Amino acid sequence: RGLALILATGIAVGVSDSLGALLKDYFARERPCHIFTKLEEIASCSNSFSFPSNHAINSFTAATILSLAYKNFAFVLYIIALLIGYSRVYLGVHYPTDVLAGALCGILIGYAVYKYVYRSMMNFLKNRFPAATDHERAETKISDH
To answer: Which of 69, 107, 127, 130 is 20 to 30 Å from 86 at the Cα level?
Structure first.
């Protein structure tokens, strides 16, 4: 389960990061730190475009796929993703809508990869290596009682 989750999360973040880069070039939205030059610079201002926030896409992608696998940690994972998104606005490198769009994309990508890629990996592993995944069935049976 752990290896499949690591691989699926890596795939999901790779997809989300690539999508974010494509969307940045497509929308070509200037960052607030380039437009509002009188703002006190807390962090350096990137030369890439602003919309959407790749930090938000990636953090919400990871939070979604991990929270679907580990439901008890969902609240903490999403709080971390929200704080990452908030920091991007606070630092003046993104507009709130950049972060919101990134969060929505990240949630959708995380859900899709979990549903189609991670579950497919788990089914493959269960069929190919049943002895290696028997402990998960035993844990499920124990926790059901």
So the answer is: 69
Predicted TM-score of the model (pTM): 0.79
Domain extents in the chain? 2-37+52-144
* Helix spans in the chain (H): 2-27, 32-35, 54-69, 74-90, 96-112, 119-128, 130-144
Q: How many CB atoms lie within 10 A of CB 99?
A: 26
CA 51-52-56 angle, to 5 degrees, is: 145
| pLDDT digits 0-9 by tens, 76-96 | 999 999 999 999 998 888 999
Tell me the average pLDDT of the chain: 84
Angstrom distance (rounded) from CA 119 to CA 116: 6
Q: Letter for the amino acid at 63?
A: A
Q: Can you say whether the dihedral through the CA atoms of 92, 93, 97, 100 is positive or negative?
A: negative
